[in-house]
Amino acid sequence: MDKVSNRIKYCCFGLIFLGLVIRLLLFKYHSTDYGGFLIHWIDHIKTYGFAGFKDDFYNYAPTYIYMLAIVAKTDIYPLYGIKILSVIFDFIAAYFLSQIVFHVTKKESFKWIAFALVSVLPTIILDGSFMAQCDSIYVSVILASVYFLLKRNNPASVILLGLAFALKAQTAIVLPFFFVYMLRGGIKWYYFLLVPVVFVIMIIPAWLAGRPFLDLLLVYKMQSEYYEGIVGFFPNIYVWIQQLINYDKNIGMIFTMLLTLTGGFILCRKKYIFSLESWIQLLFISAIVCPFFLPGMRERYMFLGDVVAVAYILMFPKKMYLPIGIIFISFFSYIRCFYYFAPFADYPQAVFSFFEFIPWRLMALVYFTIIVLTVIDFIRTLQNNKPEDEFVMGDKANPN
């Protein structure tokens, strides 16, 4: 375990402070989702209180709406309250990523650097403090789940995974990681029965308020039908093939599922040795491959990939161009989103229009290339790992 020099600490504190200042400067800006959805949800809660949860005024899982209810009950300006909530979880995400990095590397300096770098990632800053989005919340819970998994606390890990699902359906992005972990004997399949249990527990308050139970169970189905397009503001495979599959999301979802199953059964072979670092590689791959192949992905669904990219940079510095490329692609997607949405028309178009020089399909090709190179590097790492490097997983460490 290394000691952290004062210089590293001061630099990290400086970056964290810089990230906080930038966030505060962005608080005054309205986003399309705030004007079109969030403020109306807040107003509904203010008007009707808990009884208002019986109405279908929201198309999110109710767990996040409970949090908005807390904002609604304060005297804070709603825009600021929503953004403060997201910013708090920005730093919670940074904390759990830093804990994962420290658990794997045992380097105190890396823990500080990881926290600081996540704090100033441009997409993380833009997501909550500018766009008033809630992606930091469910990603924080995912990272906490992964942390407890690597600490061999399987029950806590799966409960947190269920909570993440109760916040947002995009938690599915991390399922390939958990699937491989299960196939390699790290966790028993029946632990995952806790996921729907947690989801049901989290919808009970809204059900008690009077909203139909079936509506709450199918909230993610309703949400997916609201956005019909298979291409969002994200350069994945569908910018190339959207005309070929006739806008049928099911094809992309089935393909991603088959890809996960195939990859999982390949990686469960005993010839592959997984070190702790290997699991971080797989987490990164899961976080970047799923958004590439799943339909209807939006610019912010790379949030988990951006955060885990920091861990990848620190653990595999010779391959840092791969995670840096992912961060750029994600940032590029955000900027393109701003450029096309009318409410952002007052912002400096000269800056945004620069990104028009980069063709959308070219960016998707670069993204795919990064995925291929990352997977190749991952397989080579597994083949080069020695038996003594293998991480003894939860259920293997505690077979009883």
UniProtKB/TrEMBL annotation:
Membrane-spanning parts: 7-26, 76-97, 109-124, 157-183, 189-214, 226-245, 251-269, 276-294, 324-342, 362-379
Coiled-coil portions: none
Top-level taxonomic group: Bacteria
Keywords: Membrane, Transmembrane, Transmembrane helix
Name the record gives this protein: Glycosyltransferase RgtA/B/C/D-like domain-containing protein
Organism phylogeny: Bacteria, Pseudomonadati, Bacteroidota, Bacteroidia, Bacteroidales
